[in-house]
Design goal:
Length: 315
């Protein structure tokens, strides 16, 4: 059977309507239903023989975080049946797993972005897979452009909230039929970035002598960067930095009952004055993220050690 026939058949069964009449997120969620995601998780489980408790998503240029794993092993996304592929420079497309400071960790070296052509539901499929693998807490990282003039290139920023026009305007991964086995239909999101985990992260930053900032992450859909007016709009509405990921991932993690902590590395300063030079360049962003990743790696590693000291964090 042709793939499009199969998709139409699945969608027709759920909605009694042709797929053409539905949004991409609704189609994705119908196709990647609980059974299909369970079979992806089972496929991974049978190969890794390992129950991860912490998931890490590596942002652009931040995949070396995975080298913190002592006995690291890997699964390529490309080998996993019906799993998307990474297409962006700085995203390897690998699940790395093993023990990090004695806690079982699975690390995504590569995420999926809506601008690659994936629906937000597809971009966040891995969060549902992680949930079924046994993950309780996710550490989401990204490279972001600094909007708030108090942020400098190389700063680490703990995310306390997000502001996402795409999420607010129907690029929401939870659109479509809901399966309560993952989470509820309507999801409260005012405390996605757990306050106690943020306090723990700040404590870690202090003990490591790192200047950890805190702020709001703004999401645009990309792949074009922001106009000056876009940037001013985000800044005026509370965003301190801007990027093209994270918010939809954090939303699905929260929906699935996973605890979330998220970090941005500020890789460039966003132009907030008309006719200023535009320095946004992806290769440069990846280069800066790689150069400045050491602090992020130290922080994540120490944070995981602290998580290991109290089993309640991973309940
Ligand atoms: O995957 P992240 O969010 O770290 O990547 C950032 C946002 C865009 O994908 C890209 C822009 O250069 O880097
Ligand atoms: N200006 C800008 N810089 C970034 N650095 C990483 N992501 C982004 C982005 O979306 N915009």
């Amino acid at each position: 059977m042709e793939n499009s026939d199969l998709i139409n058949q699945i969608v027709k069964k759920e909605f009694n309507l042709p797929a053409e009449l539905l949004s991409q997120d609704a189609i994705t969620n119908a196709y990647y239903n609980y059974d299909k995601i369970s079979s992806i998780a089972k496929w991974i489980e049978e190969r890794i023989h390992f129950k991860p408790r912490i998931g890490i998503i590596c942002g652009s240029g931040l995949s070396d975080i995975a080298y913190l794993i002592a006995d690291k092993q890997e699964i390529q996304y490309a080998d996993i049946p019906e799993f998307p592929r990474s297409t962006v420079h700085g995203h390897k497309g690998v699940f790395a797993y093993g023990n990090l400071n004695n806690l079982p960790v699975i690390c995504m070296q590569g995420r999926f972005h809506p601008y690659e052509g994936y629906s937000t539901a597809l971009c966040t499929l891995p969060l549902k897979v992680l949930k079924l693998l046994g993950v309780k807490l996710v550490i989401i990282t990204n490279a972001a452009g600094g909007l708030n003039p108090s942020l400098s290139v190389g700063d680490l920023m703990l995310i306390k909230d997000h502001f996402s026009l795409p999420l607010l305007s129907m690029q929401n991964p939870l659109v479509g039929h809901n399966d309560e086995r993952f989470g509820p239909r309507f999801v409260p999101v005012s405390n996605i970035y757990d306050k106690k985990l943020r306090a723990l992260m700040h404590k870690c930053g202090k003990e490591l002598n790192l200047d950890l900032k805190e702020g709001v992450y703004g999401t645009i859909s990309g792949p074009s960067y922001e106009t000056v007016t876009d940037s001013l709009f985000y800044l005026k509405n509370g965003a301190d930095c801007v990027g093209m990921s994270t918010s939809h991932e954090a939303t699905v993690a929260c929906y699935c009952g996973l605890k979330v902590v998220a970090l941005s590395i500020i890789t460039d300063k966003v132009a907030i004055e008309y006719d200023a030079e535009d320095g946004s360049d992806h290769n440069e962003i990846v280069k800066i993220a790689k150069l400045k990743a050491k602090d992020a790696e130290k922080l994540v590693s120490y944070f995981i050690t602290q998580l290991g000291m109290d089993s309640r964090w991973l309940e």
